[in-house]
Design brief:
The protein has about 290 residues and is α+β, with helices and mostly antiparallel strands.
Length: about 290
């Protein structure tokens, strides 16, 4: 009975698999050595590399009457430039700001991340940036408060002047009413003139009273704008978050990857050795 094609193929596959295992067994020392050397190198790297810790915080920029004190995108660019966020890590050593991220559709929030050789130093770096922003904002807030106080002073002065004018007009109005009431029956033309003047004085007093009331309301709004409830300084929402473990080096991941890459490198070397050996054997057989 002649063997079928499937049987021949299965036999050939079995032979190939046996050959592969034989080759691997023959070069097991090389495979073990290369893999072990790669893993050992990775382990030495992990043990000699200073661990990096990360801290992060969601920052709300200063608000005045719920309006951001400055454009958050502009502030992001300032921070990235000032703290060399986009500079290569070799030139920008820890502690450093690693990223400034803007949440989608947010006009007054940004996330600040820092890395350092300890979680405390990473958190302190964020505090340093926050204090710098606060100091920069303080000058602007003081300028805002000064301008608001100047407006309050001008309004108060104008209110006082308006009230003085109203008092004078009321005094003049009282005199006109007294003269009007003292007129005799045959002084009708004069009574008409006095009546017109009285009406004009009353209209003028009414307009000034409305103006004074408007100024006083505006002054109260200006004073309210200076209250702590309306001026909100830059601050961290929920505090600074830190991790108890380093973000780099990730020892387990590095060792697993080194094991895989070391094994792959060893198999690649075995393949090259066997290829060269096969080529040499062919050359010898031809000669």
């Amino acid at each position: 009975m002649r063997p079928t094609t499937d049987t021949l193929t299965a036999t050939k596959d079995a032979i190939d698999i046996r050959d592969i295992f034989a080759i691997l067994k023959k070069h097991k020392l090389l495979i073990f050595s290369v893999t072990a050397l790669t893993v050992l190198s990775a382990l030495i790297y992990c043990l000699t590399t200073k661990p990096l810790y990360e801290a992060k915080g969601m920052v709300e920029i200063a608000l005045i009457d719920k309006i951001p004190f400055e454009d958050v995108e502009t502030l992001k660019q300032k921070l990235e430039y000032a703290y060399h966020v986009n500079t290569p890590e070799k030139k920008n050593k820890p502690p450093r700001i690693s990223s400034v991220l803007l949440p989608k559709k947010s006009k007054n929030l940004f996330e600040l991340k820092s890395v350092a050789y300890s979680d405390k130093d990473a958190a302190a770096m964020i505090e340093t940036v926050l204090n710098k922003i606060s100091t920069d904002n303080q000058d602007k807030i003081q300028a805002y408060q000064k301008s608001q106080n100047e407006l309050i002073a001008l309004n108060s002065k104008e209110v006082q002047q308006t009230e003085n004018t109203i008092s004078e007009l009321q005094k003049e109005l009282g005199e006109l009413k007294h003269k009007f009431s003292s007129l005799k029956a045959d002084e009708a033309p004069l009574a008409g003139a006095y009546g017109l003047q009285i009406e004009q004085k009353q209209d003028r007093i009414f307009a000034l009273q409305n103006h004074s009331s408007s100024l006083q309301k505006n002054t109260e709004q200006l004073k309210l704008s200076l209250s702590p409830l309306m001026i909100k300084p830059v601050h961290i929402i929920g505090g600074i978050e830190t991790l108890d473990y380093p973000i780099w080096p990730q020892t387990q991941l590095i060792l697993v990857l080194s094991l895989i890459s070391g094994l792959a490198l060893a198999l690649f070397l075995v393949m090259i050795i066997e290829r060269l050996k096969g080529t040499r054997d062919k050359n010898i057989s031809y000669t």
